[in-house]
């Protein structure tokens, strides 16, 4: 395979290798994705965003009338995911920076495996109008000998949000190994979020601290769909029908806003480098 052009970007430290492939010509495989994401022998990232015209991708073609571009998202281990909230924000930054799209009055539509979402840009911040998260079941996660009650949330991709007692700091969790979960409830795996309440912050109704262990990528510095799940549970637990939730992650702050039935995820999205990689040299 020829050399491949790439861009590196991140949203609050959730980092991606971005591959511009408008015509869907690239033979992207799980092995190539895992090699690109390898932090020692590759470029290093939590995942790959392939930028492909919706009409040119089998999973995007159905959305081509609504969104020109399809976010073909892959986790670092080479598995596919339905949604990536930070990915959409970084993907939108890439489209705009490369003159491939301009946000209109309705925002910039991006097709994903979980449907079309719309991004809006305000300087450093990219907000995405996400699908409504569905809070649907009680379950548990385990970390070593500890068991945490949690709530399952569907954000297009699966999440399990576990609130910690005040006495147990988030930093005490060993997330070098994947948390245990109920495979009957999550047959395709799950992203697990751990939270503690935060002190009041200006501009937000609620404030939560969070760490996440991502399906297919291990612990990451940030997860946008995870923050959305956490925001949904926080609003529900506080009895608020709408409001703003500040979610602090190891990589920075994301903001989740609910107004009526509309849900927004907002935070910075940055492109940091471009280059070319020789696939034959990876691995
Ligand atoms: N980091 C992403 C989520 C990426 C997908 C996830 N690991 C999964 O497998 O569902 C985000 O910002 O939402």
TrEMBL record:
Record-listed substrate binding positions: 14, 75, 85-86, 157, 191, 214-215, 224-225
Enzyme class: isomerase
Keyword terms, alphabetized: Amino-acid biosynthesis, Cytoplasm, Isomerase, Lysine biosynthesis
Site for Could be important to modulate the pK values of the two catalytic cysteine residues, residues: 159, 214
Originating organism: Actinoplanes auranticolor
Assembly and interaction partners: Homodimer.
HAMAP family assigned: DAP_epimerase
MF-aspect GO terms: diaminopimelate epimerase activity
SUPFAM superfamilies xref list: Diaminopimelate epimerase-like (SSF54506)
Family: Belongs to the diaminopimelate epimerase family.
PROSITE patterns assigned to the protein according to its UniProt record, in alphabetical order: DAP_EPIMERASE
Reactions performed catalytically: (2S,6S)-2,6-diaminopimelate = meso-2,6-diaminopimelate
Descriptive protein name: Diaminopimelate epimerase
EC number: 5.1.1.7
């Amino acid at each position: 395979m020829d050399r491949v052009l790439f861009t590196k970007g991140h949203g609050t430290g959730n980092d991606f290798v971005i591959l511009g492939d408008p015509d869907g010509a690239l033979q992207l495989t799980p092995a190539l994705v895992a090699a690109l994401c390898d932090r020692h022998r590759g470029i290093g990232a939590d995942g790959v965003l392939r930028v492909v015209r919706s009409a040119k991708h089998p999973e995007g073609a159905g959305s081509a009338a609504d969104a020109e571009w399809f976010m073909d998202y892959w986790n670092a281990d080479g598995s596919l995911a339905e949604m990536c909230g930070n990915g959409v924000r970084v993907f939108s930054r890439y489209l705009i920076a490369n003159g491939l799209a301009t946000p209109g009055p309705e925002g910039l539509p991006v097709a994903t495996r979980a449907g079309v979402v719309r991004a809006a840009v305000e300087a450093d911040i990219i907000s995405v109008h996400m699908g409504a998260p569905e809070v649907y079941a009680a379950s548990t996660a385990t970390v070593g000998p500890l068991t945490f009650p949690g709530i399952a949330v569907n954000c297009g991709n699966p999440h399990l949000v576990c609130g910690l007692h005040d006495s147990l700091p988030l930093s005490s969790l060993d997330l070098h190994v994947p948390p245990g979960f109920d495979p009957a409830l999550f047959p395709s795996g799950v992203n697990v979020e751990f939270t503690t309440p935060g002190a009041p912050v200006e501009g937000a109704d609620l404030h939560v601290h969070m760490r996440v262990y991502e399906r297919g990528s291990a612990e990451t510095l940030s997860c946008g769909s995870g923050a959305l799940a956490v925001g949904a549970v926080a609003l529900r637990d506080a009895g608020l029908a709408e409001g703003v939730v500040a979610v602090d992650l190891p990589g920075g702050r994301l903001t989740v806003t609910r107004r009526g039935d509309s849900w927004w995820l907002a935070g910075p999205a940055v492109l940091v480098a471009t280059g070319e990689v020789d696939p034959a040299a990876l691995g």
